[in-house]
Design a protein that fits this description.
It is a single chain. The protein is α+β, with helices and mostly antiparallel strands. The chain folds into 6 domains: 2-131, Rossmann fold, CATH 3.40.50.140; 140-188 and 470-575, Topoisomerase I, domain 2; 192-272 and 401-465, Distorted Sandwich (Topoisomerase I, domain 3), CATH 2.70.20; 279-395, Topoisomerase I, domain 4 (Orthogonal Bundle), CATH 1.10.290.10; 583-623, no CATH class; 626-696, no CATH class. The chain is built from 18 helices and 25 strands. Helix 5 (133-160) packs parallel to helix 17.
Length: 696
């Protein structure tokens, strides 16, 4: 008799099958085999919120196959993913096979591994355990919690906002962030400010160096700054130079004055590598560098994991296994030299208070596997993501980069005393940047001496405006959700996907803009379910779920604490007024009734045009977002289109006769510029050459 090993996916089964011998049979469940019913609430409110789980309809044949295999097995080994969801899948499979196992006297074992390699799987088989009830309870609690919110608020949205809408516990908070940011942008008023720059040349130097005005009479000038770890938050500093006239006065006062070097400060700074990727930071980087939505990143990472190329990709930990650290250090020493190794291995700790430190950060499983090896198996997109993971992982165990930083201060005396500054830096040792290069351009300065006089080449002012707060993109929204403790690593991609699929938000230039429907849903939820749609409350619920997972709290008790005030809100909202969705005017008369105007509405399948007199006039037609651009291929109108994942691109309105497409306006201009010189005419007026189209 063979041992039966059950995993989630066929690819994972195939990879594990390479490591295990003939004594093992590998089967897969294709994810969850049991779930709450779709047709009803599926939660018994009168009996401790007991979930009424049932076999997923399209998994019945899979369960029958597993049951047949169980009859001939000696041991059933549950090898699902090492997280709460994987634990719940293992528990469901155990429940469905338990009767057959009892008949045959079989035993169940639960094993976990964070990478699909021979050593990891064999080590896991040596240390089997039982299914962790606490982890299963935490997953049940999350599922029940989300079901109660979704299935009990959604019908209210149908009545009070529009039919077909739905609500989600965590998605609603993410929507609130996006809507509130949009309101901040709308209410924002730009303010002008000026900076003053002097181009000063050292004697015998060919070119001058630009200095920026720092102080006037020892009063520091604060220039506008926008900064954030996630590009989600922002900060505005006022400046003392707020008028054009004031800037001109300063420029005039500085012209023709003597500029003296007052101080030269040099110091060595070190730049340390970042820790290995977590689910959140991987999605953020993939979004910034490649424009991948979170869902796309997780799909590619899943393939890399199942092929055994990277460790488990759903993690909030940055911990590395001692064996992995040793392998990385050996690789660095062999490939780059001992000078690229720090004296001691780098140990990282997660910043999130509830990070699961038993997990590892995302890293390559084989240090010698290059990008070409991954590309041959999984294609270019997976290879690009693997390259990010490999470089970040290897760099995490390398030496600091060393930078020599120089600050030069210059003074000028006139009606006032002016202090100007310039900075320079030179990379003296690349360290971890050798494998993980980042934007760090050398700005080497001349050898300035304190007291020397610099020659003025130019004094100028530069006008600016305080920037509005930026809209969220994939990276900044994921970073903000993580920072505020909302959701878990495995949920970020699905949160964004749900918001775009429901047409609550749309991507414009890779940033999220709420639709009128999204604004209406958010405003209704904030007004009537302020507790549920509250960031601190949602973060607190995550802490409660973590307490359940740790065995410190009963999930039924947690649900009771949540549901009592929630039920009261459900009762009160019955008397709430209906919310009107603001429709966007087009200025075009309805072609059917000639009375109403055409407005842009958002339906289940996205935007469409309809008559403002609906339901009196039921005219509708598809909405096409126009631009003022012409196709460089056939001079057709360029319109905005969307991919299947919701990403916007520019395409020709004459498709399919013309297949021109581009991601950015710049690509259209480049295509047009490339085309025009190529076109010549024969004497008979026919085209002699044709240009090729660009496609995203």
């Amino acid at each position: 008799m063979k041992n039966l090993v059950i995993v989630e996916s066929p690819t994972k089964a195939k990879t594990i099958g390479k490591f295990l011998g003939d004594d093992y049979e590998i089967k897969f469940s294709m994810g969850h085999v049991m779930d709450l019913p779709k047709s009803k609430l599926g939660v018994d409110l009168d009996h401790n919120f007991s979930p009424q789980l049932e076999v997923v309809a399209d998994k019945k044949q899979i369960i029958e196959d597993l049951q047949k295999s169980a009859k001939h097995a000696e041991v059933i080994i549950l090898a699902t993913d090492p997280d709460r969801e994987g634990e719940a899948i293992a528990a469901n499979i155990h429940e469905l096979l338990r009767v057959k196992a009892k008949e045959n006297g079989l035993t169940f074992q639960r094993i976990v591994f964070h990478e699909i390699t021979k050593d990891a799987v064999e080590e896991a088989l040596k240390s089997p355990r039982t299914v962790d009830k606490n982890l299963v309870d935490a997953q049940i609690a999350r599922r029940v919690l989300d079901r109660l919110v979704g299935y009990q608020i959604s019908p209210i949205l149908w009545q009070k906002v529009r039919r077909g809408l739905s609500a989600g516990r965590v998605q609603s908070v993410a929507l609130r962030l996006i809507v509130e940011r949009e309101k901040e942008i709308t209410a924002f008023t730009k303010e002008p400010y000026f900076t003053i720059h002097a181009l000063l040349r050292k004697e015998k130097e060919k070119h001058g160096i630009e200095f920026t005005l720092l102080e006037i009479d020892e009063k520091k000038i604060e220039t506008q700054q926008t900064f954030s770890l996630y590009d989600g938050d922002y900060s505005v500093s006022k400046t003392v130079i707020t008028s054009d006239k004031e800037a001109d006065t300063i420029v005039s006062d500085l012209q023709g004055k003597q500029f003296v070097v007052s101080d030269v400060q040099q110091k060595e700074t070190r730049r340390s590598p970042q820790p290995p990727y977590t689910t959140s930071t991987l999605q953020q980087d993939a979004s910034r560098r490649f424009g991948y939505p979170g869902k796309r990143t997780m799909s590619l990472a899943q393939k890399l994991y199942e092929e055994g190329f990277i460790t488990y990709h759903r993690t909030d930990s940055v911990t590395l296994a001692p064996a992995a650290i040793s392998a990385m250090r050996s690789f660095v020493k062999r490939e780059y030299g001992e000078q690229y190794l720090p004296q001691e291995p780098r140990i990282y700790a997660a910043k999130q208070k509830n990070a699961q430190e038993a997990h590892e950060g995302i890293r390559p499983t084989k240090m010698d596997l290059d990008v070409a090896g991954v590309r041959d198996v999984l294609g270019n997109d997976c290879a690009k993501l693997y390259d990010l993971i490999w470089r970040r992982g290897i760099a995490s165990q390398m030496a600091d980069a060393v930078i020599e930083s120089t600050t030069v201060l210059v003074t000028a005396e006139s009606k006032s005393r002016y202090l100007l500054k310039t900075n320079g830096s030179v990379l003296t040792f690349d360290g971890f940047l050798k494998v993980n290069p980042q934007a760090l351009a050398d700005t080497k300065l001349p050898d300035y001496k304190s007291g020397e006089i610099l020659e003025e080449e130019n004094i100028r002012k530069e006008a600016h405006e305080t920037p509005a707060p930026p809209r969220y993109n994939d990276a900044s929204l994921i970073g903000t959700l993580e920072e505020k403790g909302i959701g878990r690593p495995s949920t970020y991609a699905s949160i964004i996907s749900v918001l775009t699929d429901r047409a609550y938000v749309e991507r414009v230039e890779r940033r999220f803009v709420p639709t009128p429907v999204g604004v209406a849903v958010n405003d209704f939820l904030v007004q009537n379910f302020s507790t549920i749609d509250d960031i601190p409350f949602t973060a607190q619920m995550e802490s409660h779920l973590d307490a359940v997972a740790a065995g410190d709290k009963a999930w039924e008790e947690m649900m009771k604490d949540f549901y009592t005030p929630f039920a009261e809100s459900l009762e009160k909202v019955k008397d709430a007024p209906r919310v009107k969705i603001e429709a966007e005017e087009t200025g075009e008369k309805c072609p059917e009734c000639s009375v109403g105007n055409l407005v842009i509405r958002v339906g289940k399948f996205g935007k469409f045009l309809s008559c403002s007199r609906f339901p009196s006039c039921k005219f509708t037609r598809p909405y096409v977002e126009q631009t003022n651009l012409l196709c460089p291929k056939d001079n057709g109108n360029i319109i905005i289109k969307k991919t299947r994942t919701g990403r916007r691109f520019y395409g020709c309105s004459n498709y399919p006769n013309c297949d021109f497409a581009a991601w950015k306006v710049e690509d259209i201009k480049v295509a047009k510029a490339a085309k025009e010189p190529m076109e010549t005419k024969e004497d008979n007026g026919t085209d002699k050459t044709r240009s090729k189209s660009l496609a995203p």
